[in-house]
Design brief:
It comes from Mycena metata. By secondary structure, the protein is mainly alpha-helical. The protein is built from 21 helices and 2 strands. The protein has a two-stranded antiparallel ribbon.
C-alpha cells in the first residue's frame, strides 16, 4: 500500500488534521539528504585530523634536537628527536600524544556545557554554523605557520583544529561533528518510506518489530552512505591537492614542504566551507523540546547530563554500550594516533607521500564502508552484529603494532607497511566510524538524541584524553620504544568486547521509552509532538516490553 493510500487513515488518527499537515513539512527530501552527505566531504577531517597533526609533528621534528648530543647542537636524526615541553625534555611523539590529550580534555568540558542545546527549540543549525566557521578560520590561520621556530603556535592551532574537527564529532568530534552526526536519526525518522511504515503499523498492516527493522536499516543507510559519499569527495579533493603540491614544488626543499602543509590545511578548510553551505541552506529546522521552567541554555547541558547519568542504571543497555564505547574508542583513537606518529617518521613528513597515502586510504575507506552496507542490506544484519565484526579487525590492528615491539622487520616500520596499513584501515577499520555512531542511535531516546550523542562524545573524548597520556608514559618508560603502547591497547581492546556482547538492543528501546516517560513526569522537559516517543518518534507507536 502506498503512502498516499495511508493519508486518509492518518487524518482519522487522534491528532487533528492541521497537525498532520504540519508534520508533512518535516519530511526528509532528497535535496536535504544530499546536502547532509555533501557536508561531510568538507568536514571529514583533512585539515584538523590529517594534515594538521602531520604539520605539527613536522614542525616539532625541525625544531627538535638529537638527544645524544648537547641540546640544540645537532638536528634530529636516527638517534631520536626531543624538545623541552611541559617541564621536561620529551620525545616528539610523546609531545604529540600529550597535546592530543590536552585537546580532548578541552573538548569534553565544552561539550558538557553545550551538548544538550540542540535538543531544544530550533537552534541546532546555528550551533553547527558557528563551529564550522570557527574551524574554517583555524584552517586559514595555519597559513601564518611556515617555520620550525613557530612550533609553539602550531601547538595552539593543533589543539584548536582538533577541537573544531571533532566539534562537528565526533566528534564531537564535537561541536560541529557531533551536531551534524546526531541529525541522521531525525532524518531517518522523517523519510517518506519510514513515515508510510508508521501509518501501516497504525492500520495493523505491519508489526512494530517490522517497523523498527526498517528504521534501523534506514539509519544505517544514511550513516554509511554519508561516509561513502565523503570518501568519493575526498578523493577529488586530494587529487587537487596533489596538483597544488606539484605547483609549490613541495619536495624540492624542507621550507617548501613545510609551507605546503599549511597551504593544504587552508585549502581543505575552504573546501569544508563550500560543502557546508547547502546543508546550512536546506536543513529543516525541526522542532525540538521546550526548555523546562527555571533553566537556561547555560545550565541545561549540565542538568541533562546529570539526569542521564543519574538514570544510567535504568538505561542498562545504554550504560553497557557507553562503557564499551569508552574503552574501544580509547583503543582506536590512540592506535591511530600512535600509528600516525610512526607513519610520519617512516615517510619523512613528505606532503606528497602523505597525500598519496591518504588517497589510497580513502579509496579503501569508501569501498569498505559501502561493502559493509551492501552485506548488511542484503542479509538484514543488525547494527550490533556489523559492529562486532568490525571490532575484530580493530584488535587485529593492535596485534600488528604489537609485533613491532621486539623486531624492526614488522610493526609499521617500513614504507610498504604504511601503504598496506592504509588499505587495511580503510577496508576493515573505518566502518567503525559509521556503525559505532548508528549504534549510539539504537540505544538512545530520539527526543534527546543530541544530548546522548554529546554524552557519548564526552565519554569518547575522555577516553581519548586518557589514552594518549598513558601511551606517552609507556613510550617514555620503555626507552622511547614507540610500539610499546600496542601491548596496552591490545589488552584493553579484548576486554572491551565483553561489554558489547551483553548489549541487548531490543531491551534498550523499551528502557529508553520508560526513561522518556519518567523525564516527562519529572518535568525535566516539555515534549515535542514531532519526537514524541523514544524510537519511532510517534506518540501512538511506542516500544513496549
Amino acid at each position: 500500500m502506498s503512502a498516499e493510500d495511508e493519508k486518509p487513515e492518518l487524518a482519522t488518527a487522534p491528532a487533528p488534521l492541521p497537525e498532520v499537515d504540519s508534520e508533512s513539512r518535516w519530511t526528509t527530501t532528497r535535496l536535504e539528504l544530499w546536502s547532509y552527505y555533501l557536508y561531510y566531504i568538507g568536514n571529514s577531517g583533512l585539515s584538523g585530523f590529517n594534515f594538521g597533526p602531520s604539520q605539527f609533528q613536522n614542525l616539532l621534528f625541525l625544531a627538535g634536537y638529537d638527544p645524544t648530543q648537547a641540546p640544540f647542537t645537532a638536528p634530529c636524526g636516527d638517534n631520536g628527536c626531543v624538545l623541552p615541553y611541559l617541564g621536561r625534555v620529551r620525545d616528539i611523539n610523546s609531545i604529540v600524544l600529550m597535546t592530543n590529550g590536552i585537546s580532548f580534555a578541552i573538548q569534553a568540558v565544552l561539550l558538557l556545557m553545550i551538548g544538550a542545546w540542540a535538543d531544544y527549540g530550533t537552534s541546532r543549525p546555528n550551533i553547527t554554523i558557528f563551529f564550522t566557521i570557527l574551524a574554517v578560520a583555524v584552517s586559514f590561520a595555519w597559513l601564518g605557520v611556515e617555520d620550525a621556530s613557530q612550533w609553539r603556535s602550531g601547538v595552539a592551532l593543533y589543539i584548536l583544529g582538533r577541537e573544531d574537527t571533532i566539534f562537528l564529532f565526533t566528534q564531537i568530534l564535537i561541536g560541529s561533528l557531533t551536531f551534524w552526526t546526531a541529525a541522521f536519526p531525525g532524518l531517518a525518522r522523517d523519510l517518506p518510506e519510514v513515515k508510510a511504515s508508521v501509518a501501516e503499523v497504525k492500520s495493523g498492516q505491519k508489526t512494530v518489530a517490522e517497523h523498527t527493522l526498517l528504521t534501523s536499516l534506514s539509519r544505517n543507510r544514511i550513516s554509511n552512505i554519508s561516509f561513502t559519499i565523503s570518501s568519493l569527495g575526498e578523493i577529488v579533493v586530494l587529487a587537487i591537492m596533489v596538483g597544488i603540491l606539484k605547483a609549490v614544488k613541495s619536495d624540492e626543499s624542507t621550507a617548501n614542504n613545510t609551507k605546503a602543509f599549511s597551504i593544504l590545511i587552508a585549502f581543505s578548510g575552504a573546501v569544508w566551507l563550500v560543502c557546508a553551505v547547502p546543508w546550512f541552506l536546506f536543513e529543516k529546522r525541526r522542532p525540538g523540546l521546550n526548555l523546562p521552567p527555571g533553566t537556561s541554555l547555560l545550565t541545561i547541558g549540565f542538568k541533562q547530563t546529570y539526569a542521564a547519568l543519574r538514570e544510567c542504571l535504568r538505561l542498562k543497555q545504554t550504560f553497557l554500550y557507553l562503557v564499551f564505547y569508552f574503552l574501544m574508542g580509547d583503543v582506536l583513537n590512540t592506535t591511530v594516533t600512535v600509528i600516525g606518529t610512526l607513519q610520519n617518521s617512516v615517510v619523512a613528513y613528505s606532503t606528497l607521500q602523505l597525500t598519496l597515502l591518504l588517497i589510497v586510504g580513502i579509496v579503501a575507506q569508501g569501498l569498505g564502508i559501502y561493502l559493509f552496507w551492501l552485506v548488511q542490506k542484503r542479509f538484514k544484519i543488525s547494527t550490533k552484529a556489523m559492529l562486532s565484526f568490525n571490532v575484530f579487525w580493530i584488535i587485529i590492528l593492535t596485534i600488528w603494532g604489537l609485533i613491532g615491539v621486539h623486531t624492526d622487520k614488522f610493526g609499521f616500520k617500513h614504507v610498504w607497511e604504511i601503504w598496506l596499513y592504509q588499505a587495511f584501515y580503510g577496508l576493515m577499520v573505518c566502518p567503525w566510524y559509521a556503525y559505532s555512531q548508528t549504534m549510539i542511535s539504537e540505544v538512545s531516546p530520539l527526543p534527546q538524541m543530541f544530548l546522548f550523542f554529546a554524552l557519548f562524545s564526552v565519554v569518547g573524548k575522555t577516553s581519548a584524553f586518557i589514552g594518549p597520556f598513558v601511551s606517552s608514559a609507556i613510550i617514555t618508560a620503555a626507552n622511547n620504544n614507540d610500539n610499546m603502547p600496542f601491548a596496552f591497547l591490545f589488552g584493553l581492546g579484548v576486554f572491551s568486547t565483553v561489554f558489547l556482547y551483553f548489549v541487548d538492543v531490543d531491551k534498550s528501546r523499551v528502557e529508553c521509552e520508560a526513561f522518556i516517560r519518567a523525564e516527562e513526569k519529572r518535568k525535566a522537559f516539555e515534549p515535542s509532538a514531532h519526537f514524541a516517543s523514544a524510537y519511532t518518534g510517534d506518540l501512538e507507536v511506542k516500544m513496549e516490553a
